[in-house]
Amino acid sequence: MKKLVALILSAIMVLCSITTAFAYQTKPSAIGKTGGSIVVQGASGKNSLSETVDEKSELPQSYSSVDAGFVTPVKDQGEQNTCVFFSGMAAMETALLKNGFGEYDLSEEHANYWASLRNDGKGWQRDRVNSGALSMTGYGYLTSGGTVLESDLPYMSSNKEYFEDLKHIEPLFYAGGVRSMDSENIDAEYFKKTIMECGGISASFAVVFDYINTATSAYYCGDDLDVDTLSVSGHQVFVVGWDDNYSKNNFKSSHRPKNDGAWLVKNSWGDIFSYIWISYEDKYFASNYFSECFAINDVIKNHSCNKLLQVDEFGPTYNMAFDESLVENPSEITFINTFDFSAEMPSISNVEFSTSNAGDNYIIYYIPTTNGVPTNDEAQWTEIASGQVEYEGNQNIAVNNYIVPDKNGAIGVKITCNDNEPVSIGCCEWVSDLNSNQMIFLPRTLDNRSFVKSGKTSFSLTDFYNSIGDEIGGNFTIKLISNVIEGDVDKNGIVNVMDATLVQKAAADIENLDDDIVTYVADVNSDGQMNVLDATKIQKSVAGLSD
Questions:
Q1: What kind of architecture, by CATH, is found in domain 323-428+444-483?
Q2: pLDDT, tens only, 383-425
């Protein structure tokens, strides 16, 4: 019933039958490696990239992020169906290099734990041992769970406990902006640009070992394979380059494309096919059939002076929209989440939201609340950022360190489509297999924390779910990065003379300050060091004097 009244656009999780398929069509013992992407029945089963090659492109004929120094060493997933997490960590490690954070070895096992069944029955309904996954589990982990070091939780840890029973490991980084690459709406030009800009793209293909030339590591799957009728494994990899002139003769004579050109992918089978060349004409490469493609646009460093605030904790499972029977104007809706703002970190540096509406306009507001309900009076709303949605996927918007006026408040994202098409927002909601009626994902829904406003229409998402008999519900994936106010050295929510005094004492080695306080709070003139000049600037600020 809900799917009839809610217009679902460009579903991150398509609302169709979902099934697992891990058996190989050919002899797995020849390689002994596994895939792990879950097949999405009814999704696009065709690679459209080969049909969108622009011969007049100004992009180079070949490119490799490996040669550019943005790719970390190849890892080995072993016999487990964990390729989704290896692909995701490869993307994140490359994003860290691209964004100047240096080289890191991140834990795939931590992502695997995060994306498995929790003690209370919530989360992804999968066991972490030998269970495949959808790409959105990696996507959600990177934006909502946060990455840790391989040394913190090594791969295939002997610990059999659930994730929540493990000792808490504070994340090092989150993915901020994440580009969702819908194979039906992207072309080869954009695909290549994204590789150059983001370092690579997490994508999948259909694994049939008879199709690979073991001498050249060249792979081509043609129209003779129909994964609807054969049991074939999907495998998630990390696309790191291309070569328009890669010879078709490098492919097996029995499975050879018509033209030159191939994508370079980083694999996760250790020394076995560490890198593979996949033909531009490959039928299932980067299609939505196995798993949606994504690329990490930017990252957020986690530290003791900032905090990720989120109502949902798993990331979006689809993009949600509403039709004219529910809202006044489906092409202009404000999606709202309420938050408990810490007095210790009342400054907001970034707002994140997920949407399928690339090109639409957005305005981000701080909205006062009364008894947990956002005010409908837009005259009381404060605009803190605006712009145009750059790409489909998770947006990471800087809001110039807005200081919230109250501990309890809300953040609203108004999205407007100039073409009068319905707008959408990422929503963390349940996912089920329509064939077996079994749940694939169950959220930890928080009631009356997400709201909708369009013109004079307003309602809580909880009331909407109740009206259609949905007892599980969900929440919008609007997230915030809150921070200690710059100059608030004692972290009491106020910048005053005491903070300047602490900086002076620390500069004179009389007082010791935490490294994060020094880096992110006390260095107010951003010269890379803390000294009396920072104390002076804080004093001038307190006195209302210009710097």
A1: Sandwich (2.60)
A2: 999 999 999 999 999 998 999 998 899 999 999 998 889 999 9
